Amino acid sequence: MAGISRRGLLGGGAALAATGAAAGIAVGGYALGRESEDAAVDAASDTYPFRGTHQAGIVTPAQDRLHFAAFDVTTDDRQALVDLLVQWTAAAERMTQGLDAGPVGAVDGPYNVPPDDTGEAIGLPAGGLTITFGFGPGLFEKDGVDRFGLADRRPAALRDLPHFPADVLDRNRSGGDLCIQACAQDPQVAVHAIRNLARIGFGTVAVRWSQLGFGRTSSTSTSQETPRNLFGFKDGTANVKAEETAELEEQVWVQPEDDGGDWLAGGSYLVARRTNMTIEVWDRQPLADQEGFIGRTKGTGAPLSGGDEFTEPDFSMPGSNDQPVIPVDSHVAVVHPSAHGGARMLRRGYNFVDGTDDLGGLNAGLFFIAFVRDPDTQFIPVQQAMSRNDTLMEYLKFTGSALFAVPGGVGEGEHVGQALFA
Ligand SMILES: C=CC1=C(C)c2cc3[nH]c(cc4nc(cc5[nH]c(cc1n2)c(C)c5CCC(=O)O)C(CCC(=O)O)=C4C)c(C)c3C=C
Ligand SMILES: [Fe+2]
Q1: Atom of ligand 1 nearest to the CA of 235
Q2: C-beta of residue 155 within 8 angstroms of C-beta of residue 407
């Protein structure tokens, strides 16, 4: 792919100095030591290939920042939709390699037309950017209308998620015909990606809702340290990890023999659940209660039955009063694979703080994202059990919800989702 990297525009040294990480000032609000500085520079310079067997942004080591957007398709013209996917593919490939969204760039085009890149990422490295595309149920059929001749290609599992107890969904934060997940080490890189893709889609799609996230709440590789969510607990310990290749086939990647496997094989389903956390109330709970709600210790993340972070929980170990030491209504007891026929999910969520609510509390929580091979067996029953039985629910409110099918990877010369339109 031809093009000058955005950093080339500034020249090596100047471009390095332009990144806060490289300048060694601070990353994510923390002062960095020399070693961490080097790691931060590496992470900021990371590039992941856009094309491959699977879309990037699923098993890719979870980056620190998210901009997620859901779109409504505003045209009935199938060719216009395909054209957009072709353009999105080209722009996404360029941006993930640290290039401008278009071949001309932000500042080198003619004065009398809008630039083909918006410019706010000039001088920034690729930042480990991944861009992951998904298709919602409305792309296949909306209000009983098959706009694009795709109705008979919809896998049965790709439908609106059911209403769960304790859902208080905002329509304007739910659903969507298409989604784009942009993850990067630098928020400006992630926002730049979504902004440019939305700009390219003008007239064909409209942003329905979007969500910014920070501080990944999962590890997707054994090489990553487990991060913490806004309750202060390690989150991602028992996640499906990139190194578990057999588990990925079993639990994450749609297989050719699965429903929709003719176009979705090598892909996955993305479940998004915007989850508000009443953190001010949580902060007033005793440590013992907080640990009981989760079923793990707050310090090390070890299960309450003992061991270290990665020790398997022992749900039958008795505690005081002959009750199990891991409460049966704790989060890990309720969602653990042993309670769901072995079903697991690859979680890849982010913390969010969207200002303050009417009562002066933080409008904050976890933008939960999970990738599963089959939402009907791996997500819906787990969410149902959680909504009904999990003591953590006292501190949670689900305010957004969406399900998308994420097609497999994009081959050379192809556009994203090409097999669906063949
Ligand atoms: C329906 C699926 C899930 C939702 C929604 C969910 C929300 C949610 N989770 C936490 C905090 C933690 N979750 C942890 C583990 C965990 N969570 C789910 C599923 C959902 N969580 C699963 C399948 C698991 C793994 C269980 C296992 O295999 O042991 C943990 C423990 C650490 C870890 O393994 O990651 C924490 C902590 C919050 C705060 C939250 C909503 C805001
Ligand atoms: Fe969880």
Answers
A1: 35
A2: no
